[in-house]
Structure formats: structure tokens, C-alpha cells
């Protein structure tokens, strides 16, 4: 009986130990899993950050390029404007030459125009004269009235 009891005890202890070991193993596995997950998460985070950085850099590069292009365009526009101004000056000179030629041809026509202008001026003068005469008449009337009054007083 004693032996039996001892055997049973031993067996029980063995079982207990086994259980303990298993538990430990399980815990270890769990811990490892957790660690792995953590590592994975960290990796993902790092990758995300890297990607974001790259994106930002790309955006900045694009912006810089755009600015450069705009500056170039503005410079070109300014140059074009300058060229246009120069061209205009040249054109003016040419026009002057043409005008001189026209003057020689249109001598007779210009004389006729002058005559017409003179006629118009004469008409205007006549109108002015009429107005002046009217004013003079008014003045004379006033003088007469004054004389009459004086006579009465005397």
C-alpha cells in the first residue's frame, strides 16, 4: 500500500511538472508572438514615415520646378516686349518717309481745302458784327432818356 501511494504521488508530481512546463512553453510562445507583432508594427510605421517623406520631397521638387518655369516664362515675355518696342520704332520711321511722298502728290487738293476754310471764317465774322450793332443801339436809347430827364429838371 505504501509503495502504491508513493507511486501515485510521484506520478502526480510528474504530471504537475509537465503541466508547469507546458504553461511556460505557452507563455514563451505568447511572448514571442507579441514581440514579433511589435516588430512588424514598428516596421510598418517606419515604412509609412519613409513613404511620406518621399512624397513630401517630390511635392517640393515639383513646386520648385514650377517656379523655375514661371520665371523663365516671365523673362521670355519681357524679352518679347522689348523686341516689339524696337520694331515699332522702326515702323514709325518708315511711315514718315511715306508721308513725304504723299505731300508732293497732294499739293492741289490742299489748296482747295484752304479756300473752303476761308469762306467759313467769313460767315462767322458777319454774325459777330450783327451782334455788336445791336448793343450799340441799346446804348443810344439810354442816352436819350437821360437827356429828357435833365430837360424836365431845368
From TrEMBL:
Record flagged with keyword Cell inner membrane: no
GO cellular component: nucleosome
Example GO molecular function: structural constituent of chromatin
Superkingdom of the organism of origin: Eukaryota
Region ranges (Disordered): 1-154
Keywords noted in UniProt: Nucleus
Gene Ontology annotations of biological process type: nucleosome assembly
Protein name as it appears in the record: F-BAR domain-containing protein
Organism: Cherax quadricarinatus (Australian red claw crayfish)
